[in-house]
Structure formats: structure tokens, C-alpha cells
Design goal:
Elements (H helix, E strand, L loop, with lengths): L5 H30 L1 E4 L4 E4 L3 H7 L2 H32 L6 H13 L2 H11 L6 H8 L14 H26 L3 H9 L4 H12 L1 H16 L3 H6 L11 H11 L3 H27 L5
Antiparallel strand pairs: 1-2
Helix pairs in contact: 1-13, 2-13, 3-7, 3-10, 4-7, 7-10, 10-13, 12-13
């Protein structure tokens, strides 16, 4: 046996279990406890209010708006990242001159700190001196208020997230493509399946699990978006870019309404669990409906 007895196994697992309990289990239980109460940290009091916090959330315009913004951002950013990652993976699956030099450049944005990345793009989005508006003006197009236009701000942040995290989807899908036995592609070519037909009937079915994994990881990560919003817009203009994470932060650390913040955090957790179960089921089914 690998371990002589259960006591030895327990001792080896104990440090990891303690860390898991302190950093995961306890915070979740504390959030659940606060979500059903009214917490006053100044007076060290707690009053049980049942579902009142959740009921108030459903009537809160800013909470509904935050849910809408979060889902739009998740859909746009995660879909764009997986599609671009798939395109790049298909491109880098083949050998071409300069491939070994282009690969590090492609994955470079993922290596940057999110705060650094956000700061760079905030300067590029500057109305008067930003790189993007300078290019637009140079080609005869009007400059845009990327982070101050309610219709553009959320998509501007989605572009930043896509630029930074498409490399993750790219690497996952590329690994899937490289795991496909070469004889399958050679057999398909012998049977006359080339180009688009080969991708649709051979390549795509064989990388569906990698595509689902990339979509799952990026959907969960984009769903909990906070840092880019905090750095670039602070949730504005108005509440055009306020996400669920930003909503939780404002209620918890600006308004000190721990009950509402905890209730919103539980809603986020529930939605994330549903998303994870959905993707996991699809992956186990091989991506079939």
C-alpha cells in the first residue's frame, strides 16, 4: 500500500484541509450567515431577517442592472476569446516561418498583471491622447469616448479582457489539436476531406472537450470580473459597467451593508455553480445537446 495506515494519510492531508477550511469553507459559511441577517459591525450586532436581503435585491435597480451587465460581458468576452483562441490554434497548428518567435508574442498579454494591463489600455482609450483615437482620426474617423460612453464602455472593457486572456483559450485548444493523432487527418485527406470539411467533420468533434473547458474557464473568470472595472471605470459612467462583483464590493466596503453584499455574493455563487454544472455535463456528453 502507498500509505501504511489512515493516520499517516490524515496527517499528510491535514495542512491542505486546514488551508481549504480557512480560505474557502469558513468564508462561504460566513457569507451564508450574513446573507440572512442585518449586520452592524460598529455595534457588533446581528439581527436575523430571513429572506429580506434577497427580496430587497430583486427590487434593487442597480442589482438587476449589474446582473445584466455581467451576463452581457460574460457572453461577449468568453465567446470572443474562445473563437479567437480557436482561430489562432488552427493557425499555429501548422508550421510557418517565424512560428517559434510569434508564439511568445501571442501569449505575452496573459503574462501581464491585470492592473498593468488595465492601466495600459486606459491610456490607449484616452480621448485626446490615446493611441486608438489617434489611429481613428488618422484614417478619417471620429474619436470616441470609449470609457465615458454608456453604450461603449462595457464593450471597451470586454476588448481589454479579450486581448489579455485569449492566449489562455488558445493554449488549451492548441493542446487539444496537437493531441489528435496525425493518422486521422491523413486518413481524412485520403477520403477527400480537406479544408473546411475536414475541420467540421474531423477536427471540431475531436476538440470539443477542449473548447468546452476553455469556455468554462473563461466564462467563470469573466463572470466574476472586478479588477478591470475597478481600475478603468469604477462601474461608470453611471452604472453602465457595474458588474455583480463591483456591486458586492460597493455594498460591502463602501456602504457597509454586509447583509446585502453577502446575499448578492450568494447569488453569484449559485449562478457560477449552475454554469459549472452545465459545462461539466456538456463536456461529459462530448459536447452533444
Amino acid at each position: 500500500m502507498l500509505f501504511e495506515n489512515r493516520k499517516q494519510l490524515g496527517l499528510l492531508l491535514a495542512p491542505a484541509l486546514v488551508i481549504l477550511g480557512l480560505l474557502t469553507v469558513y468564508p462561504i459559511l460566513n457569507v451564508i450567515y450574513n446573507a440572512f441577517g442585518e449586520v452592524d459591525y460598529a455595534n457588533q450586532t446581528y439581527q436575523f431577517v430571513g429572506l429580506a436581503n434577497f427580496t430587497e435585491l430583486l427590487d434593487d435597480f442597480f442589482f438587476i442592472s449589474a446582473i445584466k451587465n455581467t451576463f452581457i460581458f460574460t457572453l461577449v468576452a468568453s465567446t470572443a476569446q474562445v473563437l479567437l483562441g480557436l482561430y489562432l490554434a488552427l493557425l499555429f497548428q501548422r508550421q510557418f516561418p517565424g512560428r517559434k518567435y510569434a508564439l511568445p508574442i501571442i501569449i505575452y498579454p496573459m503574462m501581464l498583471s491585470t492592473l498593468v494591463c488595465s492601466s495600459i489600455w486606459r491610456s490607449w482609450y484616452h480621448y485626446d491622447f490615446g493611441l486608438i483615437n489617434s489611429v481613428l482620426v488618422a484614417v478619417g474617423l471620429p474619436a470616441q469616448e470609449w470609457l465615458f460612453n454608456p453604450d461603449l464602455a462595457l464593450f471597451a472593457i470586454a476588448l481589454v479582457d479579450t486581448w489579455q486572456w485569449t492566449p489562455m483559450a488558445f493554449l488549451i485548444i492548441l493542446a487539444g489539436l496537437q493531441s489528435i493523432p496525425k493518422d486521422i487527418g491523413e486518413a481524412a485527406m485520403v477520403d477527400g476531406a480537406k479544408g473546411w470539411r475536414s475541420f467540421v467533420y474531423i477536427t471540431f468533434p475531436l476538440v470539443q472537450k477542449q473548447l468546452m473547458l476553455a469556455l468554462l474557464l473563461r466564462s467563470i473568470d469573466t463572470f466574476k470580473l472586478f479588477d478591470k472595472v475597478y481600475v478603468m471605470t469604477g462601474g461608470g459612467p453611471g452604472n453602465a459597467t457595474e458588474t455583480l462583483s463591483m456591486f458586492v464590493y460597493k455594498y460591502g466596503f463602501r456602504f457597509f451593508n454586509l447583509g446585502m453584499a453577502s446575499a448578492a455574493a450568494l447569488v453569484m455563487l449559485a449562478i457560477s455553480m449552475v454554469m459549472t454544472l452545465f459545462y461539466a455535463r456538456k463536456a461529459l456528453q462530448g459536447g452533444k445537446a
